[in-house]
Amino acid sequence: MWNIILGIALLYWLSTARVIRSEVLTVRERPYVEAARAAGASDFRIMTVHILPNVIPLSALYAAIAVGYSIVAQASIAFLGFGDPSVPSWGVMLQRAFVTQSFGTAWWWVIPPGLSITLVVTGAYLVGRGYEEVVNPQLQEQ
Question: pLDDT for 68-113, tens place per residue?
């Protein structure tokens, strides 16, 4: 189980780190950061006061998207049979329904785990978008 968690985390960390790094490099070159540097602000102050508040909304959005992708990836791995069958998972539930050929006759084996995956992934994404709109007032509609 820990190998699956580590693999999913490493897989989704790469793209998120690349985007956040590019945003940090963009914010680092803005005039107010250069003005703070010219005024004698320390590197720690520039990072915490000027760069970090501009990067947190983007990182929160990518974290919410990564939660959704991670849930779907874990359910897919469990459905394919590569996970631990003793660990309760929506993917294991769907796999057992598939193995017993219950997709057409026993809908109550298929609909609850599939709907749960959909609702949790959608909820995680909407929480991330809501947080981004609260933190970044430029996204709010006028």
Answer: 899 999 999 999 988 888 888 899 898 888 888 887 788 888 889 9
Q: In this structure, what token pair is assigned to residue 96?
A: 């057992």
CA distance 83 to 106: 24
| DSSP string computed for the chain | -HHHHHHHHHHHHHHHHHHHHHHHHHHHTSHHHHHHHHTT--HHHIIIIIIHHHHHHHHHHHHHHHHHHHHHHHHHHHHHT-S-TTS--HHHHHHHHHHTT-TTT-GGGTHHHHHHHHHHHHHHHHHHHHHHHHH-GGGS--
Model confidence pTM above 0.85: no
28 class by beta-carbon count within 10 Å (0-12 exposed, 13-18 middle, 19+ buried): middle
> What CA–CA distance (Å, rounded) separates 80 from 112?
19
Maximum distance among all alpha carbons in the chain?
A: 72
